[in-house]
Amino acid sequence: MFFTRRTILFASALLASAVTGAMRPGLAQNSGDGGSVVVFAAASLKNALDGIAAAWQKESGRSVKISYAASSALAKQIEQDAPAQLFISADLDWMDYVAGKGVIKAESRSNLLGNSLVLIAPNDSKVALDIEPGFDLAKALGDGRLAMATVNAAPAGKYGKAALEKLGAWDSVSSKIAQTDNVRAALLLVSRGEAPLGIVYKTDAVSEPGVKIVGTFPADSHPPIVYPAALTSKAGASAASFLAYMKSSKAKPFFEEQGFTFLQ
Fold first, then answer.
1. Would you state the torsion angle of the CA atoms of residues 32, 182, 9, 76, taken in this order, to the nearest 10 degrees?
2. Domain 31-114+226-262 is in which class?
3. 242 — alpha (psi -120 to 50), left (phi > 0) or beta?
C-alpha cells in the first residue's frame, strides 16, 4: 500500500511526539547550571545519544534533556532564543548558520562524527540496485514514492538530492519524492511499508529492524556527512562537561555501535 499526504503528516506528527521532544515553555527555566543540560540534536543521533546521556547522568548525577529534530528546525529555534545549551547538527551548513547569528561559543565547536548515506526498503522488498551513475531508481520505485527528509532544508534530504543529481537520477524521480520533516520520519514511512524506498543515513537503517539496506551511495556523490557540535551562548559548566564526555572514549562505543564514524 502506498501512502498519501495524510500518511506523511501522520508520520511527521508521530515523530514529533516520539522523537523530537519539542521544547516546553517551562524548560527555559532550566538553562545554565541551575537544572538539566538542554541539548538540541539532529534526529539521526537519537539511539546513540540517548545511551550516552544515560551513562553521563549515572556517572555525574546531573540530568540531560534532549530535543531531536531536523538540524534546520533546531537551528531556527536556537536563533529565536530557545533554551538549548548544546547543538549537534547533521551538517556544517546549519552550524555555520547559528555561528553567523552569534549564538554559539565558537571556540567550543568541533567536528564530532561522520556518517554515510544509504537506500533502504522494507525487509520483504525484492528490490536490488547497484547505486552508480545512471542507475534506474525510477523503475525501482514503480508507482511508489521515495521517502526523504526535506530536500532543501534537512541535511539528510540535501545530501540525498545532491547524490541523486550527481548520479543522474534526480530528474526521473523528483516528482516522486515524499518529503518528511526529518530523516527519522522518512525511515518510519519505509519501515511501515508506506514507501517502497527511502534515503536515510546508514545509522538510521541500523537502528530500525523493519528495513534493509539495498545500496550505499558513493562517498563522492555528495558532500561529506559531518556532524559538528558546539556549546551555545547559554551553556554553563555542566553543558561543557557533557560535551567533553561526548568527545571522550567513553562515548565512542555508543556512536560506533550505531554506525557513526567517530572523528575525535
1. 40
2. alpha beta
3. alpha
Which string of b and e fits 17-38 if b means at least 16 CB within 10 Å? eebbbebeeebeebbbeebbbb
Q: What are phi and psi of 169, to 5 degrees?
A: -105, -10
Predicted confidence (pLDDT) at residue 204 exceeds the cutoff of 70: yes
Could you tell me which residues come within 8 angstroms of residue 184 by beta carbon, excluding any fewer than 6 positions away? 15, 19, 43, 44, 46, 68, 204
Domain boundaries, the chain: 5-11+116-221, 31-114+226-262
Strands, sheet with 37-42, edge to edge from the N-terminal-most edge strand? 64-69, 37-42, 86-88, 226-231, 110-114, 261-262
In the three-class reduction of DSSP (H, G, I as helix; E, B as strand; rest coil), residue 192 is classed as coil
CA dist 175 and 230 (Å) reads: 37
Give 147: exposed, middle or buried? Use CB within 10 Å, 0-12, 13-18, 19+. Answer: buried
Cell numbers for 163, please give them.
547524490
What does the DSSP 8-state code read for residue 170? H
Residue given cell 550505531 in the structure block: 258
The domain covering 5-11+116-221 belongs, at the CATH homologous superfamily level, to Periplasmic binding protein-like II (3.40.190.10)
Q: In terms of pTM, does the model score above 0.70?
A: yes
* Amino acid letter for position 187: L
In whole angstroms, what is the distance from residue 258 CA to residue 163 CA? Answer: 22
Judged by DSSP in three states, 113 sits in strand
Band of pLDDT at residue 195, cut at 50, 70 and 90: very high
